[in-house]
Amino acid sequence: MKIRTASTGMVMVVVLAFACVVLPLLLPFDPLEIDLHHRFLPPLSGSHVLGTDEIGRDTLVRLLVGARTSLLIGLSAMALSTLTGCLTGGLTGFYGGWTRRVLMRIVDSVLCFPTIFLLLTLASFGQPGALTIVGIVSLVAWMEVSRVVDGQVRALRGREFVVAVEAMGASAAHMLLRELLPNITGAIIVVSTLNVARAILMEAYVSYLGNGIQPPQPSLGAMLNDAQEYLRPDPWLAILPGLVIAVAVIGLNFIGDGLRVAVDPRQGRRA
Amino acid sequence: MTDTFVSRLARMVVTLAIVSVTGFLLLHLAPGDPLAQFALSPGMTETQLGMIRHQMGLDVPLPVQYLVWVKGLLFGDWGRSFRDHQPVLTIIFGHLGATLELAGTASLLATWAGASMGVYGAFRQGSRGDTMMTILSVVLLSIPTFWFGLVFISLFSVRLGWLPSGNIHTVGGAFSPGDYLRHLFLPAIVLALGSTAIWSRYTRNAVAEVLGQDYIRTARAKGLSPRRIRYRHVLRNALLPMITLAGLQFPTLLSGALVTETVFTWPGIGRLFLDSLEYRDYPVAMGILMFSAVLATFGSILTDALYAVADPRLRVSRQ
Amino acid sequence: MSGPILSVRKLAVTFAQGGGPDIPAVEGASFDVGAGETVAIVGESSSGKSVTAMALLGLLPAGAGTVVSGQALFRRDGENAVDLLALPDRAMRAIRGRDISMVFQDPMTSLNPVLTIGEQIAEVLMTHDGLTRRQAQAMAIEMLARVGLRDPGQIVAHYPGQLSGGMRQRVMIAIALACRPRLLIADEPTTALDVTVQAQILALLRGLQAEMGMAIIFITHNIGVVAQVADRIVVMYSGQVVENAPVRDALDSPLMPYSRVLFRTVPTYDAVLARRQRLPTIPGHVPDPRHRPQGCTFHPRCAHFRPGVCDGFRPSLESARSGHEVRCVRWEEIARG
C-alpha cells in the first residue's frame, strides 16, 4: 500500500515538475502579458485553457511559472535547511553535553513562536523575493532536521562499529562523516523530502499574506490572495492555484511517507 | 521524572527569556518604522516626529528600550499601543475571547473527528477504510488552510448563500446565539481541518502501538468482550500519548488562527497580531508574542502534570 | 482418567504473507490432554508450540492470511465436547478465561500498566461469573492470597509497575485461575524469571493444580522444568509433533533422534530433576518454514540420516508402544542400536 502511494506521489511530482519546466515554453502567452480585452475569461475558453485573471493574464502559464518558483524555493530551502540541520544535529549528537543543551534550548524557544510570526518578521528584513523566502524558510525548517540527525547520531554513537572505529583512533570528523552520516542518510532523506513539502506550503502562506514573491511575478500564494477579491464572480481563480499547491505537496508527502517505510520498516507498519 | 519542578520552571524562564530577546530584536531591527503612520500626515515636521518618537520611548538605545519593556512586563504594565494608546493587556484581552471561542471550537472538533478517524483506522489496519483515512489525512495536511477558507466561502457563502463569509456576527445586527454560531461554523471547520489530520495520524499510531502489546493479548485470553477491550484496555493506554499532543497543539492552533482569522475577518488575537506587525506596533506585537509563549510553555508543563496524573507508572515512580 | 478433556486432531496453522508463499507454522498436530493431567509441549523456537497454544484459544491475529484447520474437541463440565476451532467468536469468548485460561511468558508486559491489579482480576470474574464489582474485588483479594502474595488487600490497589516480575507472574496466575478453569495453558511461564523465582512459580502451579484439579498444557524449552511438572511430553519440531510419550518414558528412552539429542545431556529422569538442564544446542538450524526439507524435516541435522530413506517421504506418527508415539522411519533400527 505504502509503495503504491509513494510511486503515486513520485508520478504527481515528476509530472508537475515536467509540466512547469516545458509547458511555459510551448504556450503562446507570457506570464506577465496583460490583455485588458480578455479579462476574467473562464477556463476552457479558446486559447486560454484555464482562462485569464483580472487583467487578462493567462492563468495556466501563471500557474505553471508559479509552481516552478514554488518547487525551486522548496528544493533550495530543503538543501539549505538540510545542510544546517545536519551540521548542528551532527555536532550536538556527537558531542552532547553543553553544545546539545544550548541547541535544544534554542530549538525549544523557536518552536514557541508561531511559525507565521517568524516567517513574517523575517520576511520584512530582506528584499521580498524568492531568495529571501528560501532564507527564512530554511531558518524555520532546519530545526526539524537537526533534531532528527541529533537523535540518530546519539543512538548510533554507542554502537559497536562506531566504538570500534573510535578505539582505532579515528578523528571525530572521520567518524561523523564516514561512519555515522552514511548510516543515517535514509532518515535525512525522509525529513528532507517532507521539508520540501513544508517549504512549498510556507512559501504559499507568506506570499498569501503579502510578504513573499511580489507582483507582477506569479506565485501560487499571491495568486490566491488576488483571487480573494473575485471569489463571487470567478471562484476558479482561487481554486486552481490551491489545487496546484495540493498536487505538489501531497505528492511530496506521499514520497516522504513511502520512503519512511523503506528506511524504517518498524515505524512504517505503525504509520 | 528526574526533572524536578524547579528545573522545569528554570528551563521555562530561560525559554521565555530567549523568546523575548529574539522577538524584540527581530521586531525592532526589521525595516519599517512605527512612525510611518504619522509621517504621512500633512504638515508633520521633523520636530514633531521627534516628540512622538520620544513619547513612544524609541529615542533611547535598544538595550535600554528592552530593559524598560521587560521591567514593565514583569510588573504588569505591558505598555500602550502605538496606534490607539490603549494598554496592551486591555487590547489583548479584548480580542482573546473571539480567538478562544474559535480555537476552542476548532480543537474540540479536531480532537473528536481526528481521534475517531485514527481509532477507526487502527482497528482495521490495512483495510480500504484505513487506507482512505491515511490518504485523507495526508491531503488535509498538504493543503494550505486559507485555501480551504477561500473554497468554503466561495461554495457555502457565495454560491449557496447558506453561511456568512466573515465577521463574528452580522454587522449592525443585534447579537443572537444562532447568528453567532452561523458565523463561527465555517472558520471553526477550516481551522480544525489541519489539526484533525494530525490527530488522526497520531491517534492511529498510538492505538496501533497499544494493539500490538502483550497485555491486549492477555485481555483477549481473558475472554473479555471486544467492547471492553477497546475502551478499557486499548483506549485507556492510547490516551496517554494523546495528552502530549493536546499540549503541543497550542502553538499550531495559534498559527492556524492567525491565517483563519484573516480569511474570515474574525476579530481575534491573530488578526490583531498581523495588524500590529504591519503597523510596527511593537508593544502590541511583543505583548501577543509573550502572551502566546507563556501559554505555550504553561501548556507543556500542564501536559506533563496531566500525564503524571494519568499514568500510574509515573505516579508510582514518584513515590 | 475418564477420557481426555482436550483432543487435538490434525491441527494445522498457515500464515499467508503478502506476495510470498504461505508459511505453514503447524502441520497436522495431534495430541490429547487428560483431566488433571500436565502435558508439556517441548521444542525449539519456531517449532510451532506457541502457535498451537494460541490457535487452541483462538488468539491468533485474525488477519485474512491466517488459516487454522483440524479439530480440537474440548469437554466442558457435564457437557458434550465442543470443537474449539469451529466455535463462533461469542462462544469462544465464553470459554476463554473461564474454562481455558492462559499464562504468558513475559509478566512484565502481559499486564495492563494503567489498570490496578484488582481491576484486572475482577474483570474476568465480572465477565464470566456475573459477580458484582464488590464481590469480584473480594474474590480478587482471595485469589491473590491463594497465589501466595502477602498483603493481598494492599496489592489489589497496586499497579503492575509496583510489582516485581515474580509477583506479576503470580498475578497472571491469579487472573488465569480466578474462574477455576479445567485447562490452563502456560506458555513458557517461567522463562523470563530469575532461577529462584522460577522454582517458586513452578511449585505454586503444582500446588494449585493439586488443589483445583485443572489440566495444564505447559509450553517450554526447558527440559528441567518438564521433568518437574509434566505427566506427558509432546516434542514438536518444525511444526510437527515428532514424539509423544509419558514423561519418564520420553526422558529415559526417547525414540526420535531429535528427542534423543534434545535429552542427550540429561540421560535420566532423576539427573534431569537434579540438574534442571536447558536444551542442548543441536548443530544446524530449524528449517525455514517456507522451505522445509523433503522427507523427514529433521534429516539435514540428524546423526542417523540414511540417504534415500529419510529424505524421500514424510514419516507419519506411529505408535511404538502403548502411549508412546514417534515420527521416524528408522526408530526401530536406532533403538536396537
Written account of the structure:
The complex is a heterotrimer of chains A (271), B (319) and C (337). Chain A has 271 residues and is mainly alpha-helical. In chain A, 75% of the residues lie in helices and 0% in strands. Chain A has helices at residues 2-26, 59-95, 97-112, 115-123, 130-157, 160-167, 172-208, 220-227, 236-263, 265-270. Chain A is elongated, with a radius of gyration of 22 Å. The termini of chain A are close together. Chain B has helices spanning 5-29, 36-39, 46-56, 62-74, 88-123, 128-142, 145-159, 177-211, 214-221, 226-263, 269-278, 282-310, 312-318. Chain B is built from 13 helices and no strands. Chain B has 319 residues and is mostly helical. In chain B, helix 1 runs antiparallel to helix 12 (282-310). Chain B is globular, with a radius of gyration of 24 Å. Chain C has 337 residues and is α/β, with parallel strands linked by helices. Chain C folds into two domains: 6-230, P-loop containing nucleotide triphosphate hydrolases (Rossmann fold, 3-Layer(aba) Sandwich); 245-335, no CATH class. In chain C, 34% of the residues lie in helices and 23% in strands. Chain C is built from 13 helices and twelve strands. Chain C has helices at residues 49-57, 89-95, 107-110, 117-128, 133-146, 152-155, 165-177, 195-212, 223-229, 247-252, 257-264, 269-275, 331-336; strands spanning 4-15, 23-34, 38-42, 66-75, 81-83, 100-103, 183-187, 215-220, 232-237, 240-246, 318-321, 324-326. In chain C, the strands form two sheets. An eight-stranded mixed sheet of chain C has the order 6-7-8-3-9-10-12-11, sandwiched between helices. A four-stranded antiparallel sheet of chain C has the order 2-1-4-5, covered by helices on one side. In chain C, helix 5 (133-146) crosses helix 7 (165-177) and helix 9 (223-229) crosses helix 12 (269-275). Chain C is globular and about 65 Å long. Chains in contact: A-B, B-C. The B-C interface holds B 126, 213-215, 217-225, 228, 232-233, 236-237, 240, 310-313, 315-317 and C 57, 59, 63, 92-98, 101-102, 104, 106, 109-116, 123-124, 127-128, 159, 161-162, 172, 175.
